[in-house]
Amino acid sequence: MTGPLGAALPSDTPEGASERGRLELPLLAPLFRLDRLLVALEVGILGLLLAGMIFLGLGQVVLREFFQSGWTWADALLRHLVLLAGLFGAMTATHARRHLAMDALVRVLPEAARRWSEVMVEAVSGATCIWLMVIVVPYLRDELAHGGEEVAFGITQAQFQLAFPVALAVMAFRFCLLALNDGLLLCFPRAEAALLRERGN
Amino acid sequence: MGWLAGLGLTLATLLGAPLFVILSLLTVIGFLADGQDAAILFTEFVKIAEQPMFIAIPLFTFAGYLMAESKTSVRLIDLTKALVGWLPGGVAIVALLSCAFFTVFTGVSGVTVIALGGLLLPALLREGYPERFALGLLTTGGSRGLLFPPSLPIIIYGVIAQVDIGKLFIAGVVPGVLDLAAALILCLMLGGRGPSERVPFRLDEAWRALKAAAWEIPVPFIIFGGIYGGFLTAAEAAVTMALYVFIVEVFIYKDLHWRRDVPRVIRESMVLVGGILIIIGAALGLTNLLVDREVPDQLFQAIQPFITNKITFLLVLNVFLLVVAALLDVFSAILVVLPLILPLAANYGVDPVHLGIVFLMNLEIGYSLPPMGLNLFVASFRFNQPIMALYRATLPFLVATLVVLALVTYVPSISLWLLGVVQP
């Protein structure tokens, strides 16, 4: 995890280097492939969300300034796109291990302690996401049953909020995968050494 | 049971657990302990989709990243060098202004030190500036500029404090200029001793640099002109800037390839946006819990016997925020600490706009404040210097900014008088 370096150019930062240098156990390779596939999908969706925000925002300005009119549904839709962008961005931040965190103490810990604390933090984060999912699902079921207010094109607020369980599930999957991978690497130093040798070659 | 949960959460925080995890857990456990529905966290979270101000966050961030990943930094340094390089301490001033400008558009994130440090450090050393001076200037330069629009921390402060972002943009101008002026004086004092002769001003060179940056120069004017000309809201200015910068960097300068580079920029910028918005959502839930439990009122009652007036409150606030800023990054500090500080400040009669400027200046300093300021670690990595060397190097610059902070804290009109002249 890291703090605001999340905003720095990743390939040039210590965190970028750690992301690049992450060792992946062959045993978990299919799960890491799924993880990367999901990231590609998320980036595509984020691109569409950004394009949608720019189109709607600019459309409203043009309609207002030049035609004294506007789309009545656009502002609400735009705001919901921001919510979606936040949730999808958070999923990708989990993949990149770049959630904002208070990492002052971790920076000065010895290597072994730092790595164990990472595994613990990943496991706790994964469990938290699962717990939040357990909380949000019944809440959303009620909201969907009540219908709720329409945002645009017949899509209701509750339907937009379906992104919550999706985001939490993906984040839980990633945190658990990282915890499992990093924990196993710590428990089996020989496997880690073999992976490092392989990378060296 | 409660203390066990508290201990676990404190430990997880110190070990670097994501802040959204900590805040969500605090909120959920708190509501459950009060016998309420834990799903209140999500009813608060969705308020992100109720306020138009949030739209500015992803779009300004995306535009800033586009500029950070293109060759804006090179054109910017060229331009400032051509325009002010002839002044005494010219290259140092170039470094100072470039860092401030770049920080404004890319957010306070360490990206300035990473992107400009590699270009500016050799340039400063080549001109004969002492290494310690150059390191101090560039390390603190990573957060200088935070008070100028449209820096992301100002927008996030506005969103959380429910203060008009346009007002905050104006209020930050004079303190921001004072901060730059203080650093400028330091450049002339410390940098003027050793450097070689100045670069003479050449009109053809200035013209060439102006032409090269011609498409990027209008960016601040789009924002200022749009908002204060009454054509655009802050959110619409963000939309316009994102589209303009995208067209300029991808299709005019062609610094970024739409297929090779743009997806990477989308990913990087949205990672930050996601990291921020998910904390905002969780913080909204926690704020609801705190208000429910009347925590701000209790806090006020607890500190009132010791902090009897506004001046003392501001002094204690400064010390507290400097410590917070040295431990947390700027976004987390705003999101976690501000909801508690706001009601206290209101009780002591501190204007929320003035509070915003004081708050952000503290965070700017804290970013380079030993022992844990993040700029120090980024610079240590970027310049391959021991962290202790950076502690010494940044000291004079920190003292200069602290003097400005004292002025801005105790003379509110420094932040507020321009608001009387220019009303957004």
Give an overview of the whole structure:
The complex is a heterodimer of chains A (201) and B (424). In chain A, α2 runs antiparallel to α3, α3 runs parallel beside α7 and α5 packs antiparallel against α7. Chain A is mainly α and 201 residues long. Chain A is built from eight helices and two strands, in the order αααααββααα. Residues 1-20 of chain A have low confidence and may be disordered. Chain B is mostly helical. Chain B contains 22 helices and no strands. The longest helix of chain B is centred in the middle third of the chain and has 31 residues, at 262-292. Chains A and B meet through α2, α3, α4 and α5 of A and α1, α2, α3, α4 and α7 of B.
Nutshell version of this structure?
With 201 residues, chain A is mainly alpha-helical. Chain A has helices at 14-20, 29-67, 74-95, 104-108, 111-145, 157-160, 163-187, 189-200; strands at 150-152, 155-156. The mean pLDDT of chain B is 87.
Which features does this protein show?
heterodimer, A: 201 residues, mainly alpha, two-stranded antiparallel sheet, 8 helices, 74% helix, 2% strand, elongated, disordered N terminus, B: 424 residues, 22 helices, globular
